[in-house]
Every structure is written in structure tokens, then in C-alpha cells.
Amino acid sequence: MKDVFPQVEDFTSGDLEAVFAPRDERAGELSGEQPYPVDIGGGRTAWRVAGNQVVRELLADPRTSVDDRDPRFPTKAPSQTAAWVTVQAFKSMDDPDHSRLRSVFEPHFDARATAMRRPRFEALAEELCDSLAQLGPPAEIVGSFAKPFTYRALGCVLGAPDSQWRRLQAIAEFSSSPALSATELTALLEHSLGFINELVDAGRGDPEADVIASALAGPVAAGTISERELVLTVRMLIAATGALMVNTLALATVLLSAHGDQRRRWLAGGPSFRRRGMLEVVRYLPIQTAGVSRLAIAGIDLGAVTIAAGDGILAALGVANRDPAAFTRPDALDLEREDLAAEVGFGYGPHDCMGRELALTLLEVAFATLYARFPALRPAAPLDEIGFTRNAFLFGLPELPVLW
Question: Domain boundaries in the chain?
């Protein structure tokens, strides 16, 4: 006899607000406060920035640098620095190299390119929902939906064969593991670059549609960028996108399950309305536990505080996204929220996330498809039995059994 699962509307077991509260050394003293020094190990300190306005000011300030090769740079995992600097891509470069490289790849992630790929994303989501339905309920949604959806969609953008999505997953997962030693990380990086070199050598795909084929036919052939820069950029795109997207899908499944009325109104809206709702989800979820780092390359006066040249800066994006000076009812999820101009979940300034349009579209397509197929989708276990994880890089969920 099959188990019978209650068709509850909302998942409300436990304190969701506490689970999704951003963690910070001085959370609660946020609005308008000045930067404050925090210990980052090795006898060093950096300026922790939590207020939304000052976070945006500093991330847009040309007197800050993202170049993590500088030994003064406040890295999230100092023991891994020697490995990471060998694979530097434009995410960790200042101008002019940052603008030179970003301008080559950015068109593949803008609204037009993402809209052209949308039918493929929708077909992928439907296929994975078919598979999910065959597995349960209950079914484990991270491994059966979030990961294949993320990495197969990313492969579509990059030009990697669909059959190789698990190799993209492996690159993203070790790239977000602060527990690895520099030696272990170096070996994994070399292996991943070998795989990406294979993709580049194959040159497979459509020059009009995917990153690798387009770069080979255009900027690499013209000498605007080198083949090595293409390989390092592809690795960076996999690492920067994969684990963040998977964990956002998993955490948002828990979050949205507790907001049935909002979820139904969201599903009834059009793509642009639903996309804005996903931006609110990004604002609400503190995925990047350590925020983003910068190095001051000149003195910066911020009221009573002066950040000196050579000082590190840690911008707490999750906390800035809950600043009451920037958002009404900042600790409440509101999928119809209008005041999202100050949202910093995708960063801010010239180094904001290039994949913003792609990420929001993937989230919107994923949840529109999931909730159309499984309106009562919810976690299979109480909140206090769900295995949330946090490390120096990310807040997330390695697995999530669900019912519907």
C-alpha cells in the first residue's frame, strides 16, 4: 500500500526567519553604521562593511581593487591563495584587462541572449520534472533537479556537451570548498583546465549561440584574447555560477514552500513579474556567507572612518540586503516587492555579476515549471531535520527530500 502524504499548503515547521538570517559579527547594528575592523587571521584585520549604501559606494569606487594576487588582499581561504592566483580570470582583474575580457563574454549573458535560450531551459525543466515525478514522492530534489538543471543549462551557454554536465558540477563543487589544501586545489585545477582545453580544442557548438565557439571564431582568432584567457574564463564562469545556482534553487524550495499565497500569485504572473520575484528571493537568501572582498589602493574617507591604501574590505552582501535604510520590512519575503533598486545579491558596480540575467531566468523557469507540475511541493522533513550547511564561501543544502 502506498504512503499517503498530507496536501498541506505551506511548510511552516520551525523558525524560517532564523534559518535565513544573514550571519555577521555585528548583525543588528547595520543601518548607516561605519565600517568596522575584523580579524581575518594571520595577525591581519580588514574593514567589515554592512550598511547597504556604503557597500554600494565601496563596490563602485575606483579606489578599490579585486586583484587577489596582491598579498594584502583579504581572501576568504588564505591557505588556498597560492593555487587561485595561478588561474586568475577577469573576475579578479582590474581595468583595463577586466573591461577587455568582460566585453568579449558579456553579450552571451545579456537579456537578448538569455531570451533566445529560454525555450531550451524550459524544455530541460519539463524533462527533469518528468524524471522527478517518476522518482516519488518522496524524491531528492537537489540531485535530481537542481544540479542537472544548473549544469546542463550552463553547458548549453558555454558549449559543453550535455553528457558532460557532471564534469562541470565537479569543477564548481571543488571551487567552493575552503577545506581543500593548496596542493589538493592545484591538482584539481590542473585537471579541470585539461577538461576545458578539450572543449576548446573540439571547438564544438554554434558560434552564434555558445561562448566557446563564439570566442574561438571571433576574439581568439583576432588576437583580442588568448586561448589561455578563454580557458580560464570558462573555468571561472563554471565556478562562479554552478554552486551558487544549485544552492539558491535548494534553499528557495524551502523558503517558497512556506509562502503559499505569495507563490500562487507569483505563478499567475508573467515572466517579467516572476523574474522580479526571483530577484527578491536572491535579496532574501544570504547565499554568499563571506560576501565579497576588495583591497583599497588609495585612501577612502567615510565619515569618521578612513580606509587606508592597502587595507582589506569585506562587503557583507547578505546583511546589506537586509538594511532597513534601503528596504521596507527587510526581513520579510515579498515576491511583489518594488524597492529592489538597492539589491546587492549580484554584487554592485563594474564587477557586478555578469550572469545576473541568466541566473534570474533559470530561477524563474525552474520554479514556474516545478510549481505548475507540483503545486504542493515542500520539504519532506521538519525544518530542524534539514541539513543546512555553511562554510567560508556558501550557505546551502547538499540534499533536500521533497513531497508534493
Answer: 16-403
